[in-house]
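Notebook entry, structure prediction.
Reason for the run: the old model in the group folder had no record of what sequence produced it. Starting over properly, with the input documented here first.
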Amino acid sequence: MPDAPKQSLINKASRTVAGNISVQAETEAMPNAPKQSSDKKSGRLVAGKSAVDQAEMSRSTPNVFPEASVVPIKGDTSPVLGKRELNRALLARQLLLRRSSLSALEAIGHLAGMQAQVPNPPYFGLWTRLKDFRQEDLSQLYMEHKVVRIALMRSTIHLVTSDDCLFLRPLIQPVLERGFKGPYGRKLAGADIDAVADAGRALVEERPRTFHELGKLLHEAWPESGADALSAAVRTYVPLVQVPPRGLWGESGAAAHTSAEAWLGRPLTSDASAEELVCRYLAAFGPATVKDIQVWSGLTKLRETVDRLRPRLLTFRDERGNELFDLPDAPRPDPNTPAPPRFLGEFDNMLLSYDDRSRIIADEYRPLVFTENGIIRAAILVDGFVRGIWKIERSKSEAVLVIESFAPLTALQTAELAEEGAKLLDFAAPDAGSRDVRFVSRT
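New structure, fully documented this time:
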């Protein structure tokens, strides 16, 4: 790719990040500035609290991430970013240092999508990131065909803008095909995959269908092949979107599918570039290693793509000596920037988009959040890091937010979580006759 288009991609992604952060009354960022500054070129976010407040927060928060020894790289002068610096960069880009004034559509685009294995978590993810977000803000986007639910990164269901659906699906196609061939390839008994995909497309474009219905109909034409494998083939080779009411707040039922082209009235992007994919990832999750980008996307062999972008990117090292890449103008806040308590929904991409996840969750906490059957529990952030999980228990007239902490909380942290939790209950259970926040601890 010529230099000018590469620079255009990076400038576009960088402007998006800087613009999103500035909406939150925070300034743009520059790497490795040692102190906070109000100078827009300094790259430090406006903290919004006094040095005394910051010092108190620092004293009251146990360090769950002890400093690692920096691995020297001979001849390498790249700045080293510690866990807290990486954490604050992630929080800034994920709109979690301060709620953003972006619209729900803009936020979903900025985040390069949100994992959406089940319908409700994206609502919580947007509520915790945006000012004045309401359930109908997202539900309306589904109804207007402005966002869709579709299999993308890591072959999992993601909520993305309609534009990103058409852009990302061609790039992620190899991930879907790799995931399909293992468990389902042998079940197709020599069936012509292209013919199966064409027949499946015709069926779902005739009217939206569930996978069960689709597999049953295809099995009539290919009786030697398993119905589940036939529907999986269509999911792999036809870009299927889940149509409403799937995804709407408070609705239930099996997911019905049609093709993205039929639902959106537009074809998939024919010239989608891996370079733009990398820039979009860095805008939402950087700084990051090549392996981090591959874990997020499910793609392999991205080293060459990143190397083509290298002249236009900044490079750093983490404390283990791994090379990190980033967009020049992306925010990298001071590591002592205050981070308010936040409630992440289930399957939040923040927890799934890195090879090394220590910038957001300690290794000893991962088994408490990531279950053996593939569920990623809803998590709480305290001082920017995962420190527990949460759930809402409902009865006919009561809603109780249960917060389970993995380590002792200070009185201030408990009070702040309770205050934020009460707002979460107002959002999630406005019809409850009584609402309560309850704390439990594993320690």
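Summary: Residues 1-5, 14-71 have pLDDT under 50 and may be disordered.
The old model has been moved to the deprecated folder.
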